[in-house]
Design a protein that fits this description.
With about 250 residues, this protein is α/β, with parallel strands linked by helices. It has 8 helices and 12 strands. It has a 6-stranded mixed sheet, with helices on both faces. Helix 4 packs across helix 5 and helix 4 crosses helix 8.
């Protein structure tokens, strides 16, 4: 039986486990998907050594960047982004080869593209600076938007939340939340923004999918903003992962 899995730390409820095991059951695929909660990325070698039937992995926080040093090859897209969240495990005799990909950018661009209007949507704010935000930046630039990262801290090439003005929100009217702010169980939190400057041309896209509607989305919607959560992106990512694992 082939095995697939997710590495990260900590791992709570995993969308991937339920999605893939349901897929295997529905499509009569002789495979299983497991969580591998590893406290350090060094434990990846142990996971590979103790699971000889492992064919593919997804990678989540905090290892999307750290895992790259363990890979034999990395797709040009994942290298350009600087983060990997899908690994194909190739068994060649006694040797194991690892190839890294990024499905974040595929899932995100396919999900947000129908919302964008070239007349109105030319600039975007990316909230957060982690591994996922790099893929979002890559995807938005591919879609023709200018981007700016927003951080809580003074970092090169970023602006801070407290410096964002209503005028900024009108100009950078596509806003992507790549932070955990508002995720269950802390659903009363949201990024600090001048929501009152938003209108029907504003797009708020939240990578969070639990709860269905975050406070970030609710506050924007009050002023007419278009809002979307990360569930569709997640489904599209999972589909892309399967394609990468079975690439010819």
């Amino acid at each position: 039986m082939d095995k697939y899995g997710l590495i990260g730390y900590p791992l709570g409820h995993s969308f991937s486990v339920s999605y893939f095991n349901q897929k295997f059951e529905d499509e009569d695929i002789d495979a299983v998907y497991e969580n591998f909660e590893i406290p350090t990325i060094d434990s990846l070698e142990e996971v590979l050594g103790s699971n000889p039937n492992l064919r593919g992995l997804n990678v989540t926080i905090p290892y999307k960047e750290k895992v790259m040093q363990y890979l034999d090859t990395i797709s040009p897209e994942a290298r350009a982004i600087g983060a990997v969240n899908v690994i194909r495990v190739i068994h060649d005799g006694n040797n194991i080869k690892l190839k890294g990909y990024n499905s974040d950018v595929i899932g995100f661009t396919k999900s947000i593209a129908p919302m964008l209007d070239k007349k109105w949507h030319k600039k975007a704010l990316i909230l957060g600076t982690g591994g996922a935000s790099k893929a979002i930046d890559y995807g938005l630039r591919n879609l023709g938007l200018e981007t700016v990262f927003v951080s809580r801290y003074e970092r090169p090439g970023t602006i801070q939340y407290e410096r964002i003005t209503p005028e900024d929100v009108e100009e950078y009217n596509v806003i992507i939340n790549c932070t955990p702010l508002g995720m269950y169980p802390k659903t009363e939190e949201c990024p600090l923004l001048p929501y009152e400057a938003m209108d029907s041309h504003t797009i708020l896209y939240d990578l969070i999918y639990n709860p269905d509607e975050t406070l970030f989305m609710k506050r924007g919607a009050q002023y007419g903003a278009q809002v979307k959560n990360g569930l569709e992106m997640l489904l599209l990512q999972a589909f892309a992962s399967w394609e990468f694992w079975h690439e010819k």
